[in-house]
Amino acid sequence: MDPLAFYKIPFMGLKAGKHEFQMDVDQEFFTHFPESEIEDAKGVVDVVLDYSETNMVLKMNMNLNWKVPCGRCLEELNYDLQREEQIAIQYGEETVIGEDLWTLGKNEIELDLAQTVLEMAHLARPTHQVHENESDCDQKMLGYFRTDKEESERPIDPRWDALKNL
Ligand SMILES: [Zn+2]
């Protein structure tokens, strides 16, 4: 079975009007996308599909909690990933997925929202994933990183250079 089948909405045969769906998102979801920069996020996406035979309006409301190590000290940080999208959907000859307008070709029978959920989660991320103030970081870890860096940057002892010339 398609592990992402849960993120597909078959729209053929729906009654005209609003239909609500709730999609759970968890760590497992992100394992299906090797390119994902999010691994540990969990929550729901509420979907409302306003269906008619001539067009559709898709509203998605995402609410996830994301756990990610601080980029400076690796301590776990928690972020809320919140985002809303509204997408107009029309029918046409060929399928064209635009940013907020999708055209569905004649052979399409379902909406596949997995990729959209993935993109929404990435767009909802804060720009910097670090403790707001460096003083909030795990100072012990920062200490380790500094030592590492200083050692690799330390110039070669000039006495060794002198030996090489012997
Ligand atoms: Zn930190």
Write a brief structural summary.
This protein is of the alpha+beta class and 166 residues long. The chain is 22% helix and 39% strand. It has one domain (5-136).
What does it look like?
This protein is of the alpha+beta class and 166 residues long. The chain has one domain (5-136). The protein has helices at 27-31, 114-123, 139-153, 158-164, and strands at 8-10, 17-25, 40-51, 55-69, 76-91, 96-97, 101-104, 110-112. The protein has a six-stranded mixed sheet. The relative contact order is 0.17. It binds zinc ion. Zinc ion binds at residues 70, 72-73, 75, 130-131, 137.
Secondary structure layout plus pairing:
Layout: E1 8-10, E2 17-25, H1 27-31, E3 40-51, E4 55-69, E5 76-91, E6 96-97, E7 101-104, E8 110-112, H2 114-123, H3 139-153, H4 158-164
Parallel strand pairs: 5-7
Antiparallel strand pairs: 1-8, 2-3, 3-4, 4-5, 6-7
Write a concise keyword list for the protein shown above:
alpha+beta, two-stranded antiparallel sheet, 4 helices, 39% strand
Class from secondary-structure proportions? alpha+beta
Total helical elements = 4
* Beta-strand fraction estimate: 35-45%
For the termini, the CA-CA separation is: 71 Å
Low-pLDDT stretches are none
The mean pLDDT is: 91
* Rg of Cα set: 24 Å
> Which assembly state applies to the chains in this document?
single chain
Q: What would you call the shape?
A: elongated
State the share of residues found in helices, binned by percent.
10-25%
